[in-house]
Design a protein that fits this description.
single chain, about 270 residues, 10 helices, globular, transmembrane helix, cell membrane, Lgt
Length: about 270
């Protein structure tokens, strides 16, 4: 017998309220919550290791810009290159011209892999600017990144986007803004996986915050992008060109991150000193 959970219909308006052309969306609140919670946890880490809040404030600016710019450019270049190569200004501007007038669109396309690349570039720039060891700050920041990712996927759930494949499982969700078919709540699968990863990394750090440089970063890369690779099998492809691919774009982009993670975990002591 089909469980009552299977009749859950999701049709919430992603916009909380609108004033003129401006609308506050649940996704924006989740994105904001991701940074606020991450900041609070990073402050605990910084205080534990004798770093100043001023240094964390500088880091937060770098991370915010790196995440936003990287995620936006990642979506435009990885998923909709053909469109944005003809409309390059729309990559960086939250509006477009329609029939001679401006239409506020916001940044509706963001790619997590692009965000990851943006964060790494931001960390590299930050480490050079502040003379902070790159691996030290990376090993600490990645502890909170999965939790931030969970908030973002919750925002995707509110938006009824990045939906799962059709399912007969008792926890299937009908995203009415898409169709009337029960589907895997893939956004929630990913959010749960990220929360579990946060718990693992936080526990490892609390037990031993003096592990070899890059070790926690390697664990993070292997587990997060490994989970992403597996969970992509439960998702609908985001773009039409992925239909003919054995592995979709999200999976292909995850492989290099996992390989780097394995290298960081198993590299020898001499390489670490270099």
């Amino acid at each position: 017998m089909m469980s009552i959970l299977n009749i859950i219909h999701w049709n919430i308006d992603p916009v909380i309220f609108e004033i003129g052309s401006f609308g506050l969306r649940y996704y924006a609140l989740c994105f904001l919550a991701a940074f606020v919670v991450s900041y609070i946890l990073m402050l605990k880490i910084f205080k534990r290791e004798g770093k100043t809040q001023e240094l964390l404030d500088q880091l937060s600016i770098y991370i915010f810009l790196g995440t936003l710019i990287g995620a936006r450019l990642g979506h435009c270049l990885f998923y909709e290159f053909d469109y944005y190569i003809q409309h390059p200004l729309e990559m960086i501007l939250p509006f477009r011209m329609v029939n001679g007038s401006f239409e506020l669109t916001g940044f509706q396309g963001l790619a997590s892999h692009g965000g990851a690349i943006g964060i790494l570039i931001a960390l590299w720039l930050f480490s050079r600017k502040t003379k902070t060891d790159f691996m030290w700050i990376t090993d600490r920041l990645i502890i909170v990144v999965p939790l931030a990712g969970a908030f973002v996927r919750l925002g995707n759930f509110f938006n009824s986007e990045i939906i799962g494949l059709e399912t007969k499982m008792p926890w299937g969700v009908v995203f009415e803004k898409v169709d009337m078919t029960p589907r895997h709540p893939a956004q929630l699968y990913e959010a749960i996986a990220y929360i579990l990863l946060f718990i693992v990394l936080w526990s490892m750090y609390q037990k031993n915050n003096k592990s070899k440089p890059g070790y926690l970063f390697g664990i993070f890369l292997v587990l997060l992008f490994g989970a992403r690779f597996v969970l992509e099998f439960f998702k609908e492809n985001q773009e039409a060109f992925e239909e003919s691919m054995k592995f979709n774009m999200g999976q292909l982009l995850s492989i290099p991150f996992m390989l780097v993670g394995l290298y960081l975990i198993f590299r020898k002591e001499k390489e670490q000193k270099k």
